Amino acid sequence: MATFASNRQRNPGGFRSETSEAYGRYPPSGFAGEEEDDPNSKDARLKGRISMLKEVSISIGDEIRDQNQFLGTMGQDMEGMGDRLGATIKRFHKMWVRQGCGPFFYLTLFAIGVVVFLYIYLKMR
After folding, report:
1. pLDDT tens for the 125 residues of the chain, in order
2. CA 97 to the chain's CA centroid
3. Are 117 and 124 in contact, with CB atoms under 8 Å apart?
4. d(Cα 103, Cα 118) in Å, to the nearest integer?
């Protein structure tokens, strides 16, 4: 606590004095020693980075292609499922028209019974 108060007294603006006064205008960069390196090592490092980026971009392209193929097959499956569901609804409608409201009444009564059973079961637990 005492150091914080003493720093504040030395620097009334609230900024840390280490960033501007102790090191100069900017902090030292991580590339300070690269000016003395020979051009061949710089070229080798740059080629290594370029090849790594090329491999990463190729891998990303492969992954995108695989995901697009997967989404295409999934879309086809969903279309088939929609067709089956539509056919089932048509059959249910035909049954409804032929038999009247009797099956619907029994289905509703069954659903209410299931809800009541679950309510009692959960309350007894």
Report:
1. 444 444 445 555 555 555 545 545 555 555 555 555 677 888 888 999 999 999 999 999 999 999 999 998 988 888 888 888 889 889 878 877 787 777 778 888 999 999 999 999 998 87
2. 47
3. no
4. 23
How many CB atoms lie under 10 A from the CB of residue 96? Answer: 13
Model confidence, pTM: 0.40
Separation between Cα atoms, residue 28 and residue 82, nearest integer Å: 63
Whole-number Å distance between alpha carbons of 54 and 107 = 61
Contact status, residue 12 vs residue 18, Cβ threshold 8 Å = no
Residue ranges of alpha helices (H) inside 1-125 are: 2-10, 17, 39-99, 102-124
d(CA 28, CA 31): 8
